[in-house]
């Protein structure tokens, strides 16, 4: 993992804590949450305040998210909103933390100027005894205060002020007035500088959890589904279609019926040729390492020479992807690709919508040799697999990601997956899909049977 860290591909964009004041504030919050403190004078924290250095020091990488408990957080600065989230067992946690910070930024800026803010993210589900309980997670609530309870003190003063304003005899209540003055010394002027945290509740229509072997819960689509990475954990849940990542045909049909994915070759704004060529490179690099065939420096020329020596061992994904690439760059007859083809899930991407990022994460599991998409959309799985790869493949992957992704993250994401989603409210239903739309259509009907002319584009409309 050291190679990834050195190239900024792991623990990147963390917030550096190196001042005595910040370390002291962090220790006060850490002591209150866990009963422990750090002896480190310098460390880095993520969006939730989790530090890999402190986790290593304490021998507990989940010290802010103990097993079976809610995710806790420590905020030293609102700049943490730009940091990643480490060890997230729920895919929406970082997005919720980011929205919480940006939605309460002025109040949090005021609070963190004098103290650390600590709190927790509550899924409002007391216990998850099995995968069937996951759909109960519908909303996440963020509760927060400083180590000095500034938010609670401000709420107490605000309550007294409301009583003073509304009760008829409060003007003559000397005890209430004295209490208000004393409370104001603790909390400041809450009328001119209110510190009430307003945006604390967040809808969670879709999410992925690391629990139970990895499960996707997708409710925003027309047909809700739960998708299990571990077939042994799969259960039937009322109101959900139950699938596993091994159900390739069923998954392809579900994606098509709900218009959740589209062919890269016909996706709006996608430069399909270079994208498909790069995917071929990833597949060939993996095969070259697995077969012990030298690929030079891992460049395209070396990979093509390695492919020529693979013979019958040439990965089947390459044939389908190469056919798509030729069509994208040269035209001619459009290739027939269905879910039985190993190239199928490499050749599609998620359509715009509330579940877009989650569907792209799912596709990275179904097309695991596309290590760039895997790294971008599913870092927990990427890091886990990275530790199992031979050193040659690790070196190639780290160099490729540093060269072609790290230098322009936003541009690469837009080129691969399209522009970021718009400002539609979370949970709003997606635009209705036309019957039979989606990648390669839903029912397979031959063109001659339908009496239709041959389409000009790939897989028809």
From TrEMBL:
InterPro entries: DUF6638. Residues 412-461 are annotated as: Disordered. Residues 433-443 have a biased composition (Low complexity). This is Uncharacterized protein. It comes from Paracoccus marinaquae. The lineage of its organism: Bacteria, Pseudomonadati, Pseudomonadota, Alphaproteobacteria, Rhodobacterales.
């Amino acid at each position: 993992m050291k190679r990834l860290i050195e190239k900024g591909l792991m623990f990147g964009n963390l917030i550096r804590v190196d001042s005595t004041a910040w370390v002291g504030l962090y220790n006060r919050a850490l002591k209150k949450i866990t009963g422990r403190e750090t002896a480190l004078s310098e460390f880095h924290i993520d969006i939730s305040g989790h530090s890999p250095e402190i986790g290593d020091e304490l021998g507990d990488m989940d010290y802010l998210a103990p097993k079976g408990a809610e995710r806790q957080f420590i905020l030293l600065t609102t700049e943490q909103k730009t940091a990643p989230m480490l060890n997230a067992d729920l895919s929406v946690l970082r997005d919720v933390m980011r929205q919480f910070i940006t939605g309460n930024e002025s109040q949090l800026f005021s609070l963190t100027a004098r103290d650390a803010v600590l709190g927790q993210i509550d899924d409002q589900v007391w216990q998850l005894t099995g995968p069937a309980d996951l759909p109960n997670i519908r909303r996440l609530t963020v509760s927060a205060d400083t180590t000095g309870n500034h938010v609670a003190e401000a709420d107490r003063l605000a309550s007294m002020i409301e009583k003073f304003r509304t009760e008829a005899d409060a003007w003559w209540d000397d005890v209430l007035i004295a209490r208000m003055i004393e409370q104001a010394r603790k909390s400041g002027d809450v009328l001119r500088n209110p510190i009430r945290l307003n945006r604390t509740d967040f809808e969670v229509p879709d999410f992925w959890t690391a629990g139970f072997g990895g499960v996707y819960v997708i409710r925003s689509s027309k047909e809700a589904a739960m998708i299990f990475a571990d077939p042994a954990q799969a259960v039937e849940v009322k109101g959900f279609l139950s699938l596993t990542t091994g159900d390739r045909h069923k998954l392809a049909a579900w994606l098509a019926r709900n218009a959740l994915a589209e062919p890269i070759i016909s996706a709006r704004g996608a430069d399909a040729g270079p994208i498909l060529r790069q995917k071929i490179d990833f597949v060939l690099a993996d095969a070259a390492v697995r077969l012990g065939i030298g690929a030079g420096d891992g460049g395209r020329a070396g990979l093509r020479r390695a492919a020529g020596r693979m013979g019958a061992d040439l990965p089947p994904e390459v044939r389908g992807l190469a056919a798509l690439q030729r069509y994208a760059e040269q035209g001619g007859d459009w290739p027939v690709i269905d879910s039985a083809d190993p190239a199928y899930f490499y050749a599609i991407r998620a359509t715009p919508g509330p579940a877009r990022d989650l569907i792209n994460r799912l596709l990275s599991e179904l097309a695991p040799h596309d290590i760039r998409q895997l790294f971008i959309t599913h870092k927990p799985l990427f890091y886990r697999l990275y530790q199992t790869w031979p050193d040659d493949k690790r070196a190639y992957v780290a160099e490729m990601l540093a060269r072609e992704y790290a230098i322009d993250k936003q541009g690469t994401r837009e080129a691969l997956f399209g522009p970021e989603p718009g400002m539609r409210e979370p949970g709003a239903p997606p635009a209705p899909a036309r019957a039979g739309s989606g990648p390669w259509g839903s029912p397979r009907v031959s063109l001659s049977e339908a009496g239709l002319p041959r389409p000009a584009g790939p897989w028809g409309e």
